[in-house]
Amino acid sequence: MSDAAASGDDKEAKPKKSIPIGLLLGLLNSLALLGVLGVVAYTQMIYKRPKITEAVEREKIAQEFSKKPEDMKRTIVSFDPIQANLKPSPIGVQVPGGPPQQMKAHFITMTLALELIDSEFEATTKGLLPKFLDKLLRELGGTTVDALSSVQGRYLLRSKIAGLMNDLIREEKKLPPSSTPVVANVYFSDFVVQ
Fold this sequence. Notes:
By secondary structure, the chain is α+β, with helices and mostly antiparallel strands. The protein has seven helices and four strands. 49% of the residues lie in helices and 21% in strands. The chain is flat and about 95 Å long. It starts with a helix and ends with a strand.
């Protein structure tokens, strides 16, 4: 009896057969291959991208500009005079080992007005005034006197001002970046750089 019990214990003590590692790797590779083939089949054969045609694009533009220009009432939003520091310029020549170079402070005083393409944006523009002035003052703080002393510099400043306000309005109204700019023109009624 003990021999029978011993032979029963031997059967229980035998380890179970494990799945060969080669078979397991083969199954995993097959699954991965099927997944890749499924993605390729879906993207290349099943899913059809909408065709970009001139008619579709014209329809998108027509919807974006559904408001007729004669329905739009241009308006001008004026701001109080703005005074800001400009980037300081060095005075004299820096001598190695000498005292630190002195910097001359510069500032700008300007009064500006923004022409908006539609009066419906006037309230939004006035509501965004603190954010706009903050961004404008940061922009002016890094601008040199030489950059603003030329006509090209003033035109560049105009485009930067319009761009700042357009970006803020697009962000506020959740308009796409490619939408029509709300600020049509920037006018300076006073522009002094010292």
